[in-house]
Amino acid sequence: MGAKIKELLVLPSLREAEVLTGHNNLNQTVTSLSFLEIADMEYCEEHFELNEYHTGELALTSFFSIREDIDKQCATICQLQRMGGIGIILYNVGTVLPRVAPKVLETAQALDFIIIQMPKQYRCIRYSEVIIELMAEILKKRPADNIVNEVVEKASLLPEHLRTVDITLKLLSDLLRTNIVLMNADNEVTNQIKWPRNSTTDLERLLRRVAVEDGQQVLKNDFSIFYKELYQKGNGSLSLYLLKEHELLTEAECEQTVELLRVALNLWGKKHGEVNEAALVHAILNDESEKMYRLANQLKIDVKGIELMWLLQLNDLKEEKKLKEDILSYASKFYKTCVTQLLDDQLIVLLGNYRHNDSELVLGETFIQNSPYKESIDSIVLCPRLRNTTDVRTTYQLVNEVALQLPKLFHEKKNFSISEIRQVAYANKLIQSGEAEVEETLALLSPIMDSKEQLMTLCSFLLDAGADFQICSEQLFIHKNTVKYRIKKISEALGYNVMRFSESYECYVACLTYRLISL
């Protein structure tokens, strides 16, 4: 079932360890231990799937492969947290790792990610004491009375895009160490969670060869199989199967699982069984890989071919249907794969399998300039070179983090690149880093800080006009030559040539930071 962090900390092997971060999460349940041999996420992204979710995992590591790279240590913590990890036990601080850098501690603390540092005087690389003691505690049999509350509470603490039926079942699978299969009324698998995740067992084939009565549990080929039929308004009839290897599920575990699924379907499973593009887009954005590939196969959509995303912020939903038709009519001339869906007031367009040789970069800008419904569009963010659906999801989340700030940061600007979005996210993090970081960034603007005219001109030139003199002059209602003269005087005052990219970048970040703190 698992054990809480605070229960593990009193064990002899961890008694002298120090909790550095994540003190608010000591009531979290650890369901598994892993050994983090390769901590370099750049290497992992190239060779492994990182879109899996392993709830309640605690990793043992010394950060050996990235001991000299603080940024990679921070990236590792962020990735582990995104994958459901709750913390790490850090070995050999003072030998392999000279010390835990303040930036690493700040990153972990911001995520409520637990770092447990083993005593510095331990000059050995024995992990066995911790592994043996912690696994013995984790594997102890505990009552199943609190499964529903425990899993729902964990799911509720996750980011909104992860609060799904699929993630709930993954949480449950890890907790019970059980395979879970959910089928619709047509006996099509809607969710399949294997335990362990890399299992090659053909669960569907196994289920086809066994007959189980509703609410009963049988043994077949070393598996105990529990079956329950559920009905939910909007989803119809659903068949739930729990398959546990070499062990019977208790009656309480089966009952709690059924109750948990009903709760999850009511909270996060509206129209869970639908087969349409809306369900596919939700599956992509919610990281429901099993459901995503099933729907893509049924809809004959090549999700692996998706390479480009447009995100359109709308101000008038009355024209949404016509706008979607206009986009599909335009985009289908260039792409074999075209999926468009409205989420709240944002239109998501997923494009793939480009069939022309012309540049893709101008397609989005051309569309928004010529569309008869362009007045309904506040902005469009162009997100190219997406490698997979994981990139689609992370990019979508990044844009949504800053979407509400865009109109206030970039006046009268409609077209945005994903690079500009990343710069806004960077400036936000810079502000969160503290007053010293902000002051250092804004120091560059100090020579013109007392001149509202120069400050306004520089911000407009770099942020709103994209360093275009003509656009800047139109926005400020002054002559183009006046803009050129002002920019020349500003460059002289700052000591930076703001018309040269290598020098204008720092000015760009400073202007962005200035507008952010002025919002």
TrEMBL record:
Residue intervals of the Purine catabolism PurC-like domain: 7-138
InterPro entries in the cross-refs: CdaR-like_regulators (IPR051448), PucR_C-HTH_dom (IPR025736), PucR_C-HTH_sf (IPR042070), PucR_dom (IPR012914)
Pfam families for this protein: HTH_30, PucR
Boundaries of every PucR C-terminal helix-turn-helix domain copy: 456-512
Name this protein carries in UniProt: PucR family transcriptional regulator ligand-binding domain-containing protein
UniProt organism field: Enterococcus viikkiensis
